[in-house]
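Our collaborator T.R. sent over the components below with a one-line note: 'Predict the complex.' Nothing else. No constraints on interfaces, no templates requested, no preferences about which chain binds where. So this is a plain run: every listed entity goes in together, and whatever single assembly comes back becomes the starting point for the next discussion.
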Amino acid sequence: MANDNTTNRKSILVTPELCIGCRACQVACKSWNQLPAIKTKNNGTYQNPPDLAAAAFNIIRYSEVPSQENPVRWLFVSQRCMHCDDAGCMNICPTPGAIYRTAEGAVATDASKCIGCKLCVQACPFNVPRYGEDGKMSKCHLCFDRIANGMSPACTKTCPTGALQFGDRAELIAAAKKDGYGTIYGEQDLGGLGSVYAFKDEPKLYGMKENPQIPASVVFWHTYLKPLSAIGLGGVVAAAAIHYLAIGPHKDDKEV
Amino acid sequence: MAEMIRKSSVAEVINHWILAGSCMLLMLSGFAFLFHLEPVGSVFGGFESMKNVHNWLGVVFCISLLISMVHYLKDAFEYDADDVQWFKVAGGYLSHKVKVPPMGKYNPGQKLYYLAIVGAGIAIALSGFGIWLMKDNSTVMLLSHLVHNIAFLIFVLAVPVHIYLGTLANPGTFQIMVNGMMPLADARKKHPKWIKAIGRM
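Returned assembly:
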């Protein structure tokens, strides 16, 4: 869409079928980003922490999908910011530089500029942004500091099975299709996601959100209301100026 | 010196400027949030402090709007046949040749402007408090964000017209918002029904 990153856009390709659920990606992310551990409780699943958090930019979702043929089917899905091309969080953020696009196409964050309004939470189709005790938004930033220096993000660097790959977005998608993955989740959604998923089954089975969209009111605001406020201001000021010149002010002396 | 008559009380004038001043600063910072105007943000000491200024100025605006209702709300709801005729000749603003019907203290354009400010003001205040204080309620946040921006658009369209009509378009009018006074002779011409009602015709 608005971003000129279609040619050199980088992304993470997640292939849940190759994931062994080792959570090295979670550890590597914490290590690189110096995030503290989160105290959690065992609630009957290996999934830990239970959800994305201010100190957990990525997690592996563990879901059991038993069926007649495979009574112990267990799916591991690595989850993080989707780095949308049309990013709702960036559209709605009132602060310049708090959420920004890097040259590689990542949606990066600068906590020092965040004013803590939490509008990004509402505009995100994937419920990704989290607020910590400091009142600042945090989320996966695609290791913008690493990739700007030619390295790959910490999670993909550490992944031992190739379930997480980082590289040129178009090349990753083409390779996944060649390997027989029929469904590429996020190839087109929201202008194309920066975290794309390769599936052989329906994405829904893996708990992926179907038809993700920025809330309609936010799209309406961004597309019409916002430009209209600037155009409207210019319009009424111009109308007043034209009125003053063409018709002129009230002249009481000439009345009666 | 021409004989003067008080059109606005001191309280009205002071409250008008509290309302107008807070409104202008709120709109300026609002535009800065909307269009990422960094120079404006810098004037307010950065976007974080601009947010705090914006929020608390909203409280000032709110209180001032409530006080203004004591001053103007009753008048703003009263219209008569002359007011209808006033609209038919567009208040005399589109031609100096038409005959403008006799007016009371306020013309219907001013009254409707005030009602628009009250309506949009209540909407922008409530939605502002929603965005400020109910951040974790998704429905409230999304609805407030939409309402806040629609009401903002009404302000953006209405306020410049009000400023123009109160200054350049009607010479002498601005004086009333300085000390509340206007020449009695002018008042007899512009507001004959009001002057009659107070027995000064």
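Summary for T.R.: Residues 108 and 141 of chain A are 4 Å apart (CA to CA).
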